Structure formats: structure tokens, C-alpha cells
């Protein structure tokens, strides 16, 4: 075979990766040094994650004078995806901050993160960009409720009956919506179907399993939406690698009184009963004694080592038994904080104070949520509620048939709610992200211009004080009273 008869290099998509055939190691080293390529001996080709497809295409266009066969993408190539005809049926004008977010994405290479508080219209921004780009688009969301919510909004805004991938449905269309878990499962087969991918609540993407939803997609245009970025640098850098840099950022404090309602945060301290205090001290002493004893054995011991130690039943049975006892004490101590009688009494007072308003109550556990639901005869919305039950509670709350809605974490992000101006937090994580998402539930700006209130009920002299302090590190929780 002569040099002129040598087959042209070819690139294709295969199970969430891109394969490169007919390229020498020297060429790879010189022209594609920035791409993490690995040699696949079985296939006699170089291979990398599909997310690098666009960069490979651009660099080969620049470096390979003889041309190449690009077989990536269902429409014969990512650069040749057919343009879609997407009608804009909306009758809205973007606010200034929404327009800034749209322009930041378009001028920032169409790859990156948009950080805007809950209630400022991140979905509006995403649909605007989807319409402007008019290309095959996959929207990835954390839970099935959001999948159906996005489907409804796309139908309303464009008239398109978007495909659904998840919750027992597998209907792939040029515009489709899926969950993170379903995307990670199906992306080896559908990763070459979409030119644009939108990650709602993009902080979920930083985990090792869900990140496959980004790694195995060839989408050149990547948009990540969130109200709050992860707290640690490593996870933020992972999002920047998978999606792109932070292109636009707006805080709650910046949006308050403008695109969001003005608000106040009230912290209310309550005390344990004498009986609760006695049990709380007993459990705390058990934990302190356990940690002290373990440090005498291993000076580097930390509380985080307790769980793996509890599993060492054969190697160190005595220490494993003590670890199990300490973990039980920790759980019971936390339950005293979460279920304190004073919280329920304060909750009753707040219900009376705001007797003519809709109220959301956030708890730290499902048990506490059910306890409130039973005591005050109000709906309780938990993650394992069926679709029909969840829709019944949300519609009833929106229509005013239910004045109070209690939830653990299911309302922390994404789910659309009617205008609510009062939220009560009775427990939760120290996570600033959860705190900001819960605050955002009451900040949607309604027609009445009423000031929103968030009450944070904290048990004095317990770990709840520390968790509350951690939440307050965010500027939004330090807002004026």
C-alpha cells in the first residue's frame, strides 16, 4: 500500500468515549497533548471521554492537513447537527440580571456555570439559551419531579413535547429531559445525541457516579445552573472541568429587593426540658469518654474513624463494640436536638402569629416532619411520597386549601412553589447551600411586595448552635432584621 492509499484517520463515538483510529503516537503527543488520551490495545486506537470530542475536532481541523473522517454524533458529526426550529411562545422580557446571565454564557464560549439565587429565574435563562441556540438539547435534573416540571415549562414556552428519560419512561427526542442517575446509566448510548447539555442544580454533578452524565456526552455547549456552588475548592474545580468556568454569579443579597423580595432572618433560641437536658448530657459524656479512650490507643483517632472502626468486629471486637455504642449515643443525642418539645411549642406560637399566611416548615428529619404533621394535622411532603400524593399536597398548598406544608429535604431545591413569605427552619445541616436554598423558597417576588421572613429555631447549648453558626457564614443569613 502506498502512502497515498493509507486510510484516512477516523474518529467515532463508542459507549461514552471517543475513539481515534489511524493516528500515530507522535502526532497525538504533538497535536493533542492537552487531551487525556489512552491507548486501547484491543481496539488498536486511542480513546478518551466523549466530553473532549469538541476539543479534538477543533485541534484536528487545525493540525491534520490531510483531513479525517468524523463519525461522532447521530447527525454525522457534532459540527453538523441539524439546526432545530424552536418557536418562542413566551410573552416575556428578560430582566436585567437574566439578560446579563444569557450574554455571559454566549460570550464565554457557551460553556460554564450560572449561579443565581432560587426564585430569580434560572430556568427562564436556560430556556432562552435553548431557543437562541436552536440545537438538540438534553436537560439533566436531580429528581423526577423536576423532570416533569421542566417538561411542562418547555411545552409552555416552545410547544415542544420534550422527550423523557427516567421514572420508567425512555422517550428520546432532540429536546429531552432526564435525571442525573438516568443520564449516568444511559449516556453510553445517548451521549452522541445532543449538541447542548443543561445541568440543573449542577452541584449534583460533582459526585463520582453522576459526573458520568457530563464525561460521556459529546455536547459542545454546556450550561450548569445552581443557586450555590459546592463549599470545597476540589468540587468546584471538578465542575469547571466538566462544564466550564463560572460565567455569571449573583448573590441573594444582590437580588434582595430587586428580582427577589426583601427579607429578614430571625433566630429564636429555645431550651431543652430538664429531662431532655439530663439525657443529652449523658449521651454527650458517653461520646466524650469513647473518643478519649480511642485517643489513648491511637493519638490520631478522629470521630470520623468511628464508623469504619465499628465494622472491625473480627480484628478488634472490643473497640468495634464501643464504636457501635458511641454511634448509638450520637444518634440519640441528635434526636433530642431535632425533636425538642420546645420547638413544637415555638412552632405553635409562630403558626398563631402568622395565622393568615402560607407557611413552609423545614425539618432535619423525616421523623420530625411526621411528628409535626400528626400534631398539627398539616400535610407532610417527604422524598418517598408517591407522585400522586406529592402533586395533591403541592396543588392544595398552591390553591390555599392547605395553609402549612412540612418537608424535610424534598423542597430544598428546584420544585416550583407559589408565593410564600414565611418559612420556619426547625433543623437541618450546617451546609450553606441547604440554608440558601431554603431561604430562597420564600424570596420569590410577588405582586404584593410583602417582606419575606425566615425563622430559624435553634436549641441552646447543643450542636444546633454550631450548625446555625456555620449556616450564617453566608452573607444572605447575615442580612438585616
* Name of the top-level CATH class of the largest domain: Alpha Beta
Structural class: alpha/beta
Q: What level of helicity do the residues show?
A: 25-40%
CATH topology of the largest domain: Rossmann fold
Order of neighbouring strands in the sheet with most strands = 9-8-10-7-11-12-6-13
Number of domains: 4
- Name the quaternary structure: single chain
Features of the shown structure:
481 residues; alpha/beta; MutS, DNA mismatch repair protein, domain I; Rossmann fold; 17 helices
Written account of the structure:
With 481 residues, the chain is an alpha/beta fold. It has four domains: 10-72, MutS, DNA mismatch repair protein, domain I (3-Layer(aba) Sandwich); 81-256, Rossmann fold; 263-270 and 339-477, P-loop containing nucleotide triphosphate hydrolases (Rossmann fold), CATH 3.40.50.300; 274-338. 40% of the residues lie in helices and 18% in strands. It has 17 helices and 19 strands. The protein has helices at residues 25-31, 53-63, 96-107, 122-133, 144-158, 180-190, 212-215, 233-242, 252-255, 274-297, 306-310, 317-338, 341-353, 366-376, 387-398, 432-440, 463-471, and strands at residues 10-14, 17-21, 38-40, 45-49, 69-71, 111-115, 137-141, 163-166, 169-171, 175-179, 196-199, 221-226, 246-249, 263-270, 359-362, 380-381, 404-407, 422-425, 452-459. The strands form three sheets. An eight-stranded mixed sheet has the order 9-8-10-7-11-12-6-13. Helix 3 packs across helix 4 (122-133) and helix 10 runs antiparallel to helix 12 (317-338). It is globular, with a radius of gyration of 26 Å. The N and C termini lie far apart (81 Å). The mean pLDDT is 88. Residues 346-481 form the Helicase C-terminal domain. It comes from Stieleria neptunia. InterPro entries: ATP-dep_DNA_Helicase, Helicase/UvrB_N, Helicase_ATP-bd, Helicase_C-like, P-loop_NTPase. This is UvrABC system protein B. Keywords: ATP-binding, Helicase, Hydrolase, Nucleotide-binding.
Amino acid at each position: 500500500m502506498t502512502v497515498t492509499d493509507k486510510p484516512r484517520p477516523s474518529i467515532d463515538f463508542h459507549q461514552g468515549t471517543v475513539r481515534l483510529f489511524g493516528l500515530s503516537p507522535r502526532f497525538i503527543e504533538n497535536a493533542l497533548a492537552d487531551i487525556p488520551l489512552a491507548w486501547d490495545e484491543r481496539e488498536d486506537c486511542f480513546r478518551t471521554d466523549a466530553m473532549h470530542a469538541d476539543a479534538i475536532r477543533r485541534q484536528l481541523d487545525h493540525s491534520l492537513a490531510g483531513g479525517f473522517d468524523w463519525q461522532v454524533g447521530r447527525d454525522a458529526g457534532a459540527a453538523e447537527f441539524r439546526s432545530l426550529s424552536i418557536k418562542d411562545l413566551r410573552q416575556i422580557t428578560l430582566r436585567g440580571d437574566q439578560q446579563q446571565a444569557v450574554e455571559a454564557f454566549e460570550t464565554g464560549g457557551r460553556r460554564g456555570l450560572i449561579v443565581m439565587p432560587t426564585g430569580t429565574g434560572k430556568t427562564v435563562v436556560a430556556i432562552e439559551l435553548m431557543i437562541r441556540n436552536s440545537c438538540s438539547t438534553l436537560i439533566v435534573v436531580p429528581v423526577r419531579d423536576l423532570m416533569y416540571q421542566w417538561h411542562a415549562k418547555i411545552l409552555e414556552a416552545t410547544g415542544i413535547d420534550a422527550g423523557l428519560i427516567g421514572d420508567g419512561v425512555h422517550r428520546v427526542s432532540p429536546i429531552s429531559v432526564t435525571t442525573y442517575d438516568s443520564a449516568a446509566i444511559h449516556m453510553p448510548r445517548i451521549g452522541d445525541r445532543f449538541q447542548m447539555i443543561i445541568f440543573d442544580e449542577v452541584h449534583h454533578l460533582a459526585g463520582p457516579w453522576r459526573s458520568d452524565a457530563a464525561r460521556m456526552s459529546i455536547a459542545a455547549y454546556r450550561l450548569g445552573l445552581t443557586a450555590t456552588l459546592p463549599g470545597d475548592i476540589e468540587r468546584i474545580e471538578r465542575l469547571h472541568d466538566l462544564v466550564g468556568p463560572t460565567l455569571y454569579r449573583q448573590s441573594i443579597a444582590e437580588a434582595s429587593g430587586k428580582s427577589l423580595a426583601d427579607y429578614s432572618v430571625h433566630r429564636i433560641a429555645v431550651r431543652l426540658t430538664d429531662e431532655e437536658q439530663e439525657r443529652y448530657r449523658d449521651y454527650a459524656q458517653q461520646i466524650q469518654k469513647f473518643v478519649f479512650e480511642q485517643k489513648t490507643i491511637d493519638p490520631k483517632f478522629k470521630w470520623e474513624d468511628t464508623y469504619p472502626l465499628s465494622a472491625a468486629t473480627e480484628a478488634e471486637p472490643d473497640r468495634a463494640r464501643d464504636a457501635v455504642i458511641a454511634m448509638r449515643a450520637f444518634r440519640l443525642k441528635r434526636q433530642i436536638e431535632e425533636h425538642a418539645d420546645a420547638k413544637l411549642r415555638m412552632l405553635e406560637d409562630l403558626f398563631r402569629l402568622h395565622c393568615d399566611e402560607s407557611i413552609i416548615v423545614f425539618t432535619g428529619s423525616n421523623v420530625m416532619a411526621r411528628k409535626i404533621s400528626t400534631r398539627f394535622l398539616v400535610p407532610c411532603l417527604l422524598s418517598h411520597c408517591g407522585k400522586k400524593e406529592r402533586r395533591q399536597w403541592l396543588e392544595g398548598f398552591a390553591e390555599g386549601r392547605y395553609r402549612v406544608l412540612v418537608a424535610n429535604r424534598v423542597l430544598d431545591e428546584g420544585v416550583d412553589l407559589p408565593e410564600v413569605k414565611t418559612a420556619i427552619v426547625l433543623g437541618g445541616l450546617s451546609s450553606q447551600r441547604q440554608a440558601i436554598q431554603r431561604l430562597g423558597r420564600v424570596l420569590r417576588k410577588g405582586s404584593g411586595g410583602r417582606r419575606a421572613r425566615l425563622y430559624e429555631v435553634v436549641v441552646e447549648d447543643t450542636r444546633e448552635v454550631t450548625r446555625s453558626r456555620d449556616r450564617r457564614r453566608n452573607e444572605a443569613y447575615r442580612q438585616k432584621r
